[in-house]
Structure formats: structure tokens, C-alpha cells
Structure prediction request, 158 residues.
Amino acid sequence: MPRFNTRNTKGMLGAALAAAVALATFASVTHAQEVNSSAEPAHEAPAAKSWQTGLHRTDLVRRDLGVSDREVIQVRVDFEPGVAAPRHSHPGVEVAYVISGTFEYQLDGQPAVTLKTGDSLYIPAGTPHIATNVGTTTGSELATYIVQKDKPLVVLEK
Prediction:
């Protein structure tokens, strides 16, 4: 019969709570305004959507690393056309891999870079950045984070 390990359970609940707080914070700030696309001519780019409705995250992996204060988190992020994630940073590094679509990444202090399917980008720890789907179809990225435990995954920046 399995034993109930309160230390491990408290740690897991703390991590889950921290992740929930980070995602709630991420979802509470508006970055892009929803635009009425019915007034647009068909030849123009799609209207920007609010990231709260046009950005979808699927958590894939969350595991401790062999170092006491670090964990790896892997997330699939799907962006509808024109959607931009708000300016944010992470308490560790991020490696973004474009599964499909075309994205523009703006990292503070660096020129914007456009990535297409199969391209990757390394984002240093604590670097504020914005990711925007500049394509005309839904785009997807695989985000892999090596971050400090017990800190919010997403820190919104001004």
C-alpha cells in the first residue's frame, strides 16, 4: 500500500500553486486589443486578437533537475494569427522551437528576429521579450524552460 508523503505533497502543491498564480497573472493583463475584422478588406492581414483568447498553452513536462533549485518545464504554445504574448520574462532560460507558423521575437536590447517552422531561439534568463504570430495561420512553438523552482514561470514586464 503506498504511503502518503506529506513533504513531497506539500512541495507538489506549492509548485502547482505557483504555476496557477503565474498563469492567472499572465491571463490578467491585456496586451492586444480585439479588432472588428468585418470592416477589413479581404486582402489585409488578419486583425490582432487579444492574447487572452488567442494564446493557448498545453503543459507537457515538469520535472526536477539534478540540481536542488532547478526544474525543466516544457509547454506547447499555440498562437492564433496576429496574437502577441505580453512583454514578459522567466526565472531561467527559455529555448523556443517553432513547430509551425512564423513568429517575430523581440528580446530587449536585440533586434527583432523572425523565425519559421523548424527554427529555434535561446532566450537568456530574466530577458524581457515579446513573441508575436506574424503569420496568417495559427502558429505553434515548443517552449522549454530551465528555471528556478518555486518562482512564477512568467513575470510580466512593463
User: Anything to note?
Assistant: Helices lie at 6-27, 51-54.
